[in-house]
From TrEMBL, chains A, B:
InterPro entries: HTH_MarR-typ, MarR/SlyA-like, WH-like_DNA-bd_sf, WH_DNA-bd_sf
One Pfam family per UniProt: MarR_2
GO biological process, one term: response to stress
Protein name per the record: MarR family transcriptional regulator
Gene3D superfamilies xrefs: Winged helix-like DNA-binding domain superfamily/Winged helix DNA-binding domain
SMART domains in the cross-refs: HTH_MARR
PANTHER family to which the protein is assigned, alphabetical: HTH-TYPE TRANSCRIPTIONAL REPRESSOR YETL (PTHR33164:SF43), TRANSCRIPTIONAL REGULATOR, MARR FAMILY (PTHR33164)
Domain HTH marR-type: 1-135
Organism field: Intrasporangium oryzae NRRL B-24470
Domain of life: Bacteria
One GO molecular-function entry: DNA-binding transcription factor activity
DNA sequence: CCCACATGGTGCGATCTCGCAGTACATCTG
DNA sequence: CAGATGTACTGCGAGATCGCACCATGTGGG
């Protein structure tokens, strides 16, 4: 068994679980995660967001357009760079995120319970994995 | 920090890393993983494959069509159920998988090295996560 | 100060993903 | 051994992802 392959399997299962659980909120698992990133920072540029998501710029561009059309996000001018802009979750966007969060919470709890004493390990391992993979991605 | 969210972040990074690394082989990260599942079992039905991938039947159907068009996969009648069929990797498909595997190997090694002593933990945690998530998905 | 080159974003189009609805076969019930 | 109900798969179409080519702006060298 290989760690990267397992990451992939776990991710598929997780994605499916979240998509089902969050469906009533109107957000997909991916979208919930993205909204979570957005709500963690008051404001963020597309490039920064792309780095967090490890997604291509074009995809992020589509996200912003979609979320903006929903009224969940606004663009503000970026004082530091006129080519760019800053993305901000609107109150409506925050509400959507909270609503999805309410559906997400029970899963979070359930997973923590089932992990039992290994919950701590799991967090540490995952953080380390992200560091390792990003390190390799960054070029060495 | 939440385990499920971290799973998602790690998966995005991993996917990006694999897509870049495997590009010369003509397979994406997803496809490499699927070919890996296919090569682990001599033969598999679409429904079984869908369970492994935690993917909807329709998506698996598209996969099979695509891989078949590449000559990487064949369909054989399923003696147990005439609605179904069995998917088998062709020699050409195996070759493609091996070629991608050659590009994958260095990453595997690199990740293992960087994880160091935690490599064992990582595997265990990931396996446990898959069990936990699948358990919840299965309904309780 | 200008120019060459690097970087931030987007329109467009090819390709994927996946829900819905439909068909074919299997299985269960009486 | 029907008839009803469930399960395996697929055509189709809507929406999502993302590479390529492109424009606008920033930056570093001479």
């Amino acid at each position: 068994m290989d760690a990267l392959f397992l990451v992939w399997l776990v991710a598929r299962s997780t994605e499916d679980l979240l998509d089902s659980a969050l469906a009533p909120s109107g957000l997909t698992g991916d979208e919930y995660a993205i909204y979570s990133v957005l709500s963690a920072a008051p404001t963020i540029t597309p490039t920064e967001l792309a780095r967090w998501l490890a997604a291509p710029a074009t995809t992020v561009s589509s996200y912003v357009k979609r979320f903006e059309a929903r009224g969940h996000v606004t663009r503000e001018p970026n004082p530091d760079d006129r080519r760019s802009y800053r993305i901000r979750l609107t109150p409506k966007g925050r509400r959507a995120h909270r609503a999805a969060g309410a559906l997400f919470a029970p899963l979070r709890t359930e997973v923590a319970e089932r992990l039992g004493s290994r919950a701590e390990d799991a967090l540490e391992v995952l953080l380390r994995l992200r560091t390792v993979v990003d390190g390799i991605r960054a070029g060495a």
